[in-house]
């Protein structure tokens, strides 16, 4: 499975870039899936709903299905967070998986960077960051793209993964 990441500090533009890249690459006829890492607790379910009640009762997994989609919720209940590799194994085959987050993993990445956040660049100390998408000019030893030039960033990623 081909894999490429989007990393960056909070408010760097990662999610917007991911959304635009999925649209751009899928629009070119490639199948794309995404993985998003959250550093905080999250829930896709709602209190009072049947599936929420199943989990609250102690179910390890709850599969919620309809004609339009299905969602598998797995409660870790104190177990270690799964690795990116373990999560990728759960995905159906696609042309490309775009990963938001997992900045410490070894897959190739584009760093989203906004100067106004005041955060340092990740790229200079991380060889897995193959390019930077920035809202300001930068001088680096790897390609720098305009953060809003989705087409050029998509072209770069697709070349990198040989699609």
Helix and strand layout, with pairings?
Blueprint: E1 3-7, H1 14-27, E2 32-36, H2 50-56, E3 61-65, E4 70-74, H3 84-88, E5 96-100, E6 109-113, E7 129-134, E8 144-146, H4 150-160
Parallel strand pairs: 1-5, 1-6, 2-5, 6-7, 7-8
Antiparallel strand pairs: 3-4
Helix pairs in contact: 1-4
Shape: globular
Order of helices and strands: EHEHEEHEEEEH
CATH homologous superfamily classification: P-loop containing nucleotide triphosphate hydrolases
CATH architecture: 3-Layer(aba) Sandwich
Mean pLDDT: 93
What is the CATH fold-level name? Rossmann fold
* Main structural class: alpha/beta
Tell me the count of domains: 1
**Over all CA atoms, what is the radius of gyration?**
18 Å
Total count of strands: 8
CATH class: Alpha Beta
Strand count, sense and barrel status of the largest sheet are: 6 strands, parallel
Portion of residues in helices? 10-25%
Describe the model.
The chain is of the alpha/beta class and 163 residues long. 23% of the residues lie in helices and 24% in strands. The protein has one domain (3-41, 81-160): P-loop containing nucleotide triphosphate hydrolases (Rossmann fold). It has helices spanning 14-27, 50-56, 84-88, 150-160; strands at residues 3-7, 32-36, 61-65, 70-74, 96-100, 109-113, 129-134, 144-146. A hairpin with a 4-residue loop joins β3 (61-65) and β4 (70-74). The relative contact order is 0.26. The mean pLDDT is 93.
């Amino acid at each position: 499975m081909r894999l490429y990441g989007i990393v960056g500090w909070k408010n760097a533009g990662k999610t917007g870039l991911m959304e635009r890249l999925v649209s751009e690459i899928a629009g070119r006829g490639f199948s794309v899936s995404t993985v998003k890492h959250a550093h905080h607790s999250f829930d896709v379910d709602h209190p009072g709903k049947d599936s929420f009640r199943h989990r609250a009762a102690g179910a390890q997994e709850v599969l919620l299905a309809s004609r339009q989609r299905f969602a598998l919720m797995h409660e870790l209940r104190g177990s270690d967070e799964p690795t990116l590799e373990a999560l990728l194994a759960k995905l159906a085959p696609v042309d490309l998986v775009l990963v938001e987050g997992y900045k410490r993993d070894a897959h190739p990445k584009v760093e989203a960077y906004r100067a106004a956040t005041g955060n340092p660049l990740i790229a200079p100390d991380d060889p897995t960051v193959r390019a930077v998408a920035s809202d300001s000019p930068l001088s680096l030893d790897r390609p720098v793209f305009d953060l809003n030039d989705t087409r050029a960033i998509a072209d770069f990623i697709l070349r990198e993964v040989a699609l």
